[in-house]
């Protein structure tokens, strides 16, 4: 079976755009977080960030942003 690879550059571009959009939302979510925020609050932080910045994302990118925000909060607890 032969795969058509002509679409790969476009697919990679779309995936990169998705990660860039999620990263922008994660940055906004973390910038508005209080010092004592917990990973459980990530969905609310991401939802609020989505309202503040002009990026439209799909459900997959939203979930990526939530998981990344949770991870960032867990890995970098408030001092």
Give your account of this protein's structure:
The model has no long low-confidence stretch (mean pLDDT 86). The chain starts with 7 loop residues before the first helix and ends with a helix. It has a domain of 35 residues. It is built from 3 helices and no strands. It is mainly α.
Main attributes?
mainly alpha; 67% helix; 79 residues
Q: Taking all residues together, what is the mean pLDDT?
A: 86
In total, how many beta strands?
0
Query: What fraction of the residues are assigned to beta strands by DSSP?
Result: under 5%
Number of helices: 3
- N-to-C CA distance: 55 Å
Question: What is the secondary structure topology, with strand pairs?
Answer:
Elements: H1 8-32, H2 42-52, H3 59-75
Helix pairs in contact: 1-2, 1-3, 2-3
Task: Write a brief structural summary.
With 79 residues, the protein is mainly α. Helix content is 67%, strand content 0%.
């Amino acid at each position: 079976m032969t795969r058509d690879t002509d679409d790969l550059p476009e697919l990679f571009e779309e995936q990169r755009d998705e990660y860039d959009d999620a990263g922008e939302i994660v940055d906004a979510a973390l910038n508005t977080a209080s010092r004592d925020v917990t990973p459980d609050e990530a969905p609310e932080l991401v939802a609020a960030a989505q309202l503040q910045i002009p990026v439209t994302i799909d459900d997959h990118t939203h979930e990526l942003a939530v998981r990344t925000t949770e991870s960032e909060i867990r890995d970098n607890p408030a001092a």
